[in-house]
Specification:
about 55% helix, mainly alpha, single chain, 6 helices
């Protein structure tokens, strides 16, 4: 059984492996593309809250919230993940708005604190609606726990 490993054998293994993994890549790509439309919540953007959600995203970006927080696993890890904050706050946009408006929390030495952005009521509502929208995206179990 001691057979010499020839150039032809090596070439065949290379080409066969390349073809196999290319076909696997294509199959996984088509599978992902088939699942993604059923996992988004695009209908929320087309409803009456669509403009508020869009304004909330603009506020999120203008105030560089992702500079401290993660959103669906992307961003900085200084502050908590906000992809599930709506669920964490009891499915209440009022609780989210109250939390943001009450920042910074005083009297907790050595703890990180969120700055006060002095948002208007309209901006707070838009940001809360954006975070609600994000929490309703089917993320296939991300984040892995409710604490973010």
């Amino acid at each position: 059984m001691a057979q010499a490993f020839t150039k032809t054998m090596a070439r065949n293994i290379f080409y066969g492996g390349t073809a196999f993994f290319f076909l696997l890549f294509l199959a996984l790509t088509f599978d992902s593309m088939g699942q993604l439309p059923s996992r988004d919540n695009r209908a929320a953007l087309e409803g009456e809250m669509g403009p508020k959600i869009a304004l909330g995203k603009v506020i999120w970006e203008e105030n560089d919230c992702i500079g401290c927080h993660t959103l669906l696993g992307e961003g900085a890890y200084f502050a908590p993940e906000l992809g599930n904050v709506y669920t964490r706050f009891g499915n209440s946009t009022e609780a989210i708005k109250g939390f943001i408006a009450s920042r910074p929390a005083e009297g907790i030495p050595g703890r990180r604190s969120m700055p006060q952005f002095n948002f208007t009521d309209e901006e707070l509502e838009a940001l809360a609606q954006f975070l609600k929208y994000v929490s309703e995206i089917n993320t296939a179990g991300w984040p892995p726990n409710t604490q973010g």
